[in-house]
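Bumping with the actual sequence this time:
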Amino acid sequence: MRSANATVSAARKAAGSNARDIKAARRVLEFAGDAIKDLGETLNGDFSRALDVILAIKGRVIVSGMGKSGHIARKIAATLASTGTPAHFIHPAEASHGDLGMVTKTDALLMLSNSGETAELSHLIVHAKRLRIPVIGIASNRNSALLQAADVPLVLPKAPEACSIGMAPTTSTTLMVVLGDALAVALMERRGFSADDYRDLHPAGALGRALVRVCDIMHGKDELPLVAPDAEMKDVLIVMTSGRFGFAGVAGVVDEKGALIGIITDGDLRRHMERDLLDRKARDVMTKKPKTIGPGVLAAEALSFMNETPPKVTCLFVVDPSADVKKPMGLLSIHDCLRAGLQ
C-alpha cells in the first residue's frame, strides 16, 4: 500500500512540476510575442534612416553592447556580415583599452543598451563624435544618454522581463535580436542580396553545398568531348576515351552551327555493338535530342534530374536555355556532383 501511495504521490508531484514548467515557458513566449508585436507597430521612419546610414558608409558597421546586450550585439554583427553588410563586434570595455583603433572614419556605430545608460559605451560614443561618424542607438528609453547622443535612435517598446523577479534580460534581449534581424533582412533587400551572394559567404557545410550551381562544378568548353555528325565511330571512340569521363566516356554530336544534336554514351555503344560499328558514323549511333541542363540550375536539382527522370543518365551537357542555338558550354557528370558533396 505504501509503495502504491508513494507512486501516486510522485506522479502528482511530477505533474505539478511539469505544469509549473510549462506555465513559465508560456509566460516567456507570451511576453516575447506581445513585445515583438508592439515593436512592429512602433517602427517608423527612423528604421529607414538607419538603413540609409548603413548603406551610405564605405566601411563597416561596428556593433557594441555590454553584458547580455553585448552577446546580442555579437549575433547581430555576425548576421549582418553573413548577409552582405560588413560588420564586426567591439567589446566596449576593450574599446577603452585600445580597441577604439578598430573604429575608422568610414564606419558607423550600432550600439545596444536596454536602459541606454550603460557607462562602458561612453568612450565609444565620444570617439564616434570625434571622428564624426554616425551612431545608431538601440534602447528602450528615448531620453537615455545613448539615444540622446545617437544620430538615429531606435526605441524599443518598454516591456516586462519574463523572469519571476522581472530583472533578468529576457524580453528585452529578444527585442534586440528581432530588431537586428529586421535590419539585416531589410539591408539584404535594399542591396538586392541574392542566393548566390549568400552562397559565396557560406561555402562550407550543407548550406554551401545546397547552393552550388551547375556552372560552379561543370567542365568547361575546353574539356568538351565533341564530334561532328559524319565522324567515323573509330574516331569518336578516341574522343570518348581520351577525356576524364571514363573508359567508354561520352561524346556530344554538334552540327555545323555548333548546336548539340545528339549524344553518344557507353549505352549507345552497347546497343550498336556489331561488326561494322567502327565503320559507322556518329549520326548513326547517337541518341537524338539528348537531355541537357542550364548553367544556373542548382547542382542538387541536376543530380535529381539525372537520377529520377527516365532514362537515368550519368552526364548532362550544359546549354544556355535562352540561346537560339543550343551550343554546349559545359558538361556535368554525376561524379562532379558527388565530389561537390551532393547526394
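The C-alpha cells above came from a reply further down the thread. The mean pLDDT is 88.
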